[in-house]
């Protein structure tokens, strides 16, 4: 082994020694110094074709790869023959492929104008247009598609090579280009690439290109309205193009025989269910209804996969089904689990952690279990799997640790809020005893301020005491499984709301006290003090906990959908 290594090292050293004479040409090509390159080429005309790097690149490869100095590239191409432009490096790539990778469109046009065959010369990793797509060079892809010939055999737009190109274009989200390709070469939709699947499967892996995967929130509109509008406009256009592409692919696949269409639809359908892309599922099922009954690995259908991966937007499609909705919930996997058993299992951490706080996670899991239970026939609600467990037993065992964490989270939150409410109650009670009298009791402003102070301080005291009692009830709860669904969240919502009211009225009482103390004497300081008083209230409103728990408890996690006559799942 040592001998082999020394031999290989010696070969590399010899090659580097041989390449040393081309160092001036290499530097000239890299820096775009045509005069220096011209001198070298005049002395050695064969240097045009010489491999001047250890990767067997020519001076043209180097110059094109910089993406700059187009004048140098133009003069070099003018001095070379069309055959010289087709010289390849150790990866079998011409200078056009290098230009495609770096996005040097100007150089690509110069190369193709002199040798049109370059666009159809494939390297070890494919044609230049495929390499451009893999590196996200959109303008280069558009140009190379226009100059790459499709009438030669084998056609670069047919079979696996065509499908691989379309998948690369879809991966980089060049949907306009993909739609044009599907229109010109519809057979691309029906080909599966080894290791990459079909073109429709490529779309089923990209969650963020559909409306269901959008991460935009209304808070972004509040803080950056201009940027939000620009971003959402761009996203909506992308979503529309992606959906249009899905429809086009579905139309082409439906032209095939039923067995082939079923096979091509099955994998994207199940992948979309796992990742939560209802748009793809709807289009596939409406294009080819029988596929809704397909089962993938471990005999699991679309809705079982949606339950396992906690994809409420996919499971919500069950509302669009007609009388068959109860049939799809009867599937049993190899372990004897029905869909309610699957709802009782713990999901992956990345899905579970989308909800903040262990208590809210338990609530979310209970909501899933209760929702799935609606569609399960009575005979399956108490059915046992191969481990001898009913769905309730599966849920209890799988969520035992999470419920302990939820109880601890609820206790910690309630304790912290109790301390805050107690401090506010203490301040509010002390403020009544030491109420400010004001500088001028006959002044209407002073009288109004005193009235505001009295009312807001009383409300602050009463609401903070109410919050304390509510948090104490949470601390003394038995923390049963059912309590996490409604009782504990509602108690926390009420307690946090009372705490918020106590903070709000305490700040109002503080502002009224400032007016009573300073009155009209130093009115100029009232404005900044009032602004500072609003700050803690604003921060409390922005905090997501109260909003999240309210939406989860009263809004639910499942979309409110009704069966639709025009687009009903079969």
Description:
- The two termini are 65 Å apart.
- This protein is mostly helical and 570 residues long.
- A hairpin with a 3-residue loop joins strand 1 and strand 2.
- Strands 1-2 form a two-stranded antiparallel sheet.
- The N terminus is likely disordered.
- This is PGG domain-containing protein.
Strand arrangement, major sheet: 1-2
Number of beta strands: 2
| Shape, per Cα inertia axes | flat
% residues in beta strands? under 5%
Gyration radius over CA: 35 Å
Helix content: 55-70%
Protein name: PGG domain-containing protein
Keywords: ANK repeat, Membrane, Transmembrane, Transmembrane helix
Organism: Carnegiea gigantea
InterPro entries: Ankyrin_rpt, Ankyrin_rpt-contain_sf, PGG_dom
């Amino acid at each position: 082994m040592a001998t082999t290594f020394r031999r290989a090292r010696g070969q590399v050293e010899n090659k580097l020694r041989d390449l040393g004479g081309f160092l001036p040409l290499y530097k000239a090509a890299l820096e775009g110094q045509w005069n220096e390159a011209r001198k070298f080429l005049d002395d050695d005309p064969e240097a045009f074709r010489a491999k001047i790097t250890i990767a067997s690149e020519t001076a043209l490869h180097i110059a094109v790869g910089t993406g700059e100095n187009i004048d140098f590239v133009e003069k070099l191409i003018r001095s070379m023959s069309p055959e010289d432009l087709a010289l390849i490096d150790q990866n079998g790539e011409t200078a056009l492929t290098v230009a495609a990778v770096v996005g040097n469109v100007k150089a690509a046009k110069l190369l193709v104008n002199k040798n049109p065959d370059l666009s159809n010369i494939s390297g070890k990793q494919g044609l230049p247009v495929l390499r451009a797509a893999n590196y996200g060079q959109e303008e280069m892809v558009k140009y190379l598609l226009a100059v790459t010939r499709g009438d030669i055999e084998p056609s670069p737009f047919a079979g696996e090579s065509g499908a691989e190109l379309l998948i690369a274009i879809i991966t980089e989200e060049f949907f306009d280009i993909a739609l044009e390709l599907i229109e010109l070469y519809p057979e691309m939709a029906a080909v599966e690439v080894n290791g990459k699947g079909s073109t429709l499967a490529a779309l089923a892996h990209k969650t963020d290109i559909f409306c269901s995967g959008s991460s935009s929130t209304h808070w972004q509109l509040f803080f950056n309205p201009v940027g939000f509008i620009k971003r959402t406009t761009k996203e909506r256009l992308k979503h529309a193009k992606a959906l249009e592409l899905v429809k086009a692919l579905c139309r082409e696949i439906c032209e095939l025989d039923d067995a082939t269409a079923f096979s091509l639809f099955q994998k994207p359908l199940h992948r979309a269910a796992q990742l939560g892309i209802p748009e793809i599922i709807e289009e596939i099922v409406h294009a080819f209804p029988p596929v809704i009954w397909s089962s993938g690995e471990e005999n699991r259908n679309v809705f079982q996969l949606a339950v396992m991966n906690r994809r409420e937007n996919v499971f919500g499609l069950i509302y669009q089904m007609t009388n068959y909705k109860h049939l799809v919930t009867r599937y049993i996997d190899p372990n004897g689990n029905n869909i309610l058993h699957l709802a009782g299992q713990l999901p992956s951490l990345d899905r579970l952690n989308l909800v903040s706080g262990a208590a809210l996670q338990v609530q979310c899991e209970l909501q899933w279990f209760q929702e799935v239970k609606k569609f399960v026939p009575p005979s399956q609600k108490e059915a046992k799997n191969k481990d001898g467990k009913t769905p309730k037993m599966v849920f209890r065992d799988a969520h035992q640790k999470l419920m302990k964490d939820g109880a601890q989270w609820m206790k910690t939150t309630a304790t912290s809020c109790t301390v805050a409410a107690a401090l506010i109650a203490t301040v509010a009670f002390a403020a009544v005893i030491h109420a400010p009298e004001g500088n001028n009791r006959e002044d209407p402003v002073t009288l109004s301020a005193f009235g505001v102070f009295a009312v807001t301080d009383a409300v602050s005291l009463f609401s903070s005491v109410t919050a304390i009692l509510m948090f104490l009830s949470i601390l003394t709860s038995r923390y049963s499984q059912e309590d996490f669904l409604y009782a504990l969240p509602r108690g926390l919502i009420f307690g946090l709301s009372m705490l918020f009211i106590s903070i709000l009225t305490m700040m109002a009482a503080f502002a009224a006290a400032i007016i009573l103390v300073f009155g009209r004497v130093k009115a100029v300081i009232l404005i900044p003090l009032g602004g500072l008083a609003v700050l803690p209230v604003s921060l409390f409103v922005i905090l997501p906990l109260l909003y999240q728990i309210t939406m989860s408890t009263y809004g639910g996690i499942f979309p409110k959908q009704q069966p639709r006559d025009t687009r009903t799942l079969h």
